[in-house]
Amino acid sequence: MQETIKYIKQAFELKSQQCYKQAIEMLYKALELENDNLEILFQLGELYYLLKNFPRAAGYLEKVTAKNSEHIESLNILKQIHIFQNEYKEAYQISERVFNIQKTSKNLSELIKIAAKTGSIDKIKEFEKSDIADGNVVYCCAKAYYDNSKLDDAKRALNNALELEPDNEDALVLLGKIYFDESEFDKSKEIFNRFSKTSENPEILNYLGLFALEDMKFIDAV
To answer: Which CATH superfamily is domain 1-71 in?
Structure first.
């Protein structure tokens, strides 16, 4: 047991130094002593994920979830692997498992983002009505509608999100973009003028520059 702990500690030190391959070597030594240790299996999966060796990573993480179906950290990494490989159906299934284990607004937002990739508009509309839907969740629904060219739904959801969180920058920017694309320039301008000209958001600065040019304020635009 003490020897196992020694190898795991060495692995953590090497991992903190981004020496992932050397950390894996330490964990293999630990695994020889305790081949069913979930922490060792998870750390191996995470390290292979960091090395972008997704097949190896998935193999170890699936061993973890086979023993503990509610191991959130493993499920989240498996979800990311499927997203990187454009396997959105599988990613959605795992994200749904995570949400069913921990019904938080953050996990619901992640579920909505993946549902957007599969074009599951009906599911997104259900999520929008959830009891735990805060301003960010409703914004994620709006972004999902927008990405699937459902602009009326997007505008409705954005206005709802802003009722919940009036200063939600992402919601304001997206609503301003939609109005601009629909040639409702006054509405778009009103939104973007709420932001400072010293904003660090390049998208905001771009639209402020466009409106400054329109007003012939060339100095401000530069």
So the answer is: Tetratricopeptide repeat domain (1.25.40.10)
